[in-house]
Amino acid sequence: MSNLTMSSLTIGALAKRTGVKIPTIRYYESIGLLPEAPRTGSNRRTYDDKAVNRLRFIRHARELGFEVEAIRQLLAMADDPGRPCRDADLLARTHLAEIESRIARLEALRDEVRRMVDGCAQDQVRSCHVIEVLADHAHCLHDRH
What we know:
Layout: H1 11-18, H2 22-30, H3 49-63, H4 68-78, H5 86-118, H6 129-135
């Protein structure tokens, strides 16, 4: 067995500690979100506690829906703790506005599908409201592109 310490983790141990899959860790390294790990004499990647914290940051940001480029910017800000946080706040506020916009669109879709389903008498297809609405967009209440 290897005698790696807590501050010298294999990629598998890093994956277990952070809940991030190995291919995802490699991907984050390849795009520069996670610095390329030093390698042992046998060419195995090794990670320290700083990598653990950075990967947890990335994972949490992804769970909150931040895109890779926004995470890259947030990481750069986190790496410069004396920097004003207004840029981080602006990124988060922009992301929140995008979330609220998506929620509004999803609510409109839900309402439209609910209206479509509620209008269906479940008789024969020839009088099926679901089929009628899907066949003719003019029956929809939401934006008609």
